Amino acid sequence: MRKVLVFQHVANEILGTLNPALKQQGLRIRYVNFERDPNATPSIDKYNGLIVLGGYMGVYEADQYTHIKTEMKLIEEALKKDVPVLGICLGAQILAHVLGSEVRKASEKEMGWYDIELTTAGEHAPLLSHFKKTEKVFQMHGDTFDIPKSCEHLAQSKICPAQAFSYGRKAYGLQFHLEVDEAMISRWLNNPRNQQDIESSGGKVSAEQMKADTAKYLQNSLNLSQQTFQKFIDLFEMKERPIILKSK
Asked: pTM for this one?
C-alpha cells in the first residue's frame, strides 16, 4: 500500500485540493492531528511522502507546542532518508528551521490575495515551472524566515521575501496556500482568530475584499495547485501497480 503521512495542527487547516490529488494516485492518507493528540509520536517508516500543514502557532513557541519538536525530528529523518517533504505555511517554517533558519514575526501579516514573484531559480524549479513570473496566491500568516543557506530561493513577495524554497530535489516549502478552495477560505474567514487578525490590521485587509478577490483569483490558483501537487506526488517515484490477470 502506497501511503503519505500528513501533519495537521488545527481543524481548519486541511489538505484541501491536495486531498483529491493524492487519492487519484491511489495513495492512502494518514493524518497525525497534533491538536487532538499533541503527544503523538508517529514514524515516517514505510511512507512515500510527508506533508506538513499550516497552523496559528509559531516555531518559536515549541516549548509550549511541544509537538513542533517532534515534527522537527521527523522532518530531519525524512530528509536523511530522501523522503519527499512538502511544508505549507507553518510547515514551511518548521522545514526552514530544521534547515537552519530562525522563524520570527513578520513586519506585517499577509492575509488574503498577494502577488508572489518567482526568482530566477524559481523559474527553473520543476515544482513551479508552470507558474508565470508573477502569480496571485492566497496567504494567511504572520511569521516569516530567511531562506536557509543550503536551499534554493524560489519565490518572494514585498512583505515576506521567503515565499518558496527547495532543499535538494525532493523537499519544498511554500509559505502561501495553494491548497485552498472556496470552502476553506470561507471557513477561515469565519474563524474568530482570523477575524480578530483582520480587525487588527487597521483597515489594510477586509473580509469583503478577500471575498471579492477570491472570486477573481481562485480559479487560477486551483489550476496552479493541480499541476503543482501532481509534480510533488511524482517525486514519490512510485511504480505503477502491477496488473493482476484473473485466471478463468
From this structure: 0.94
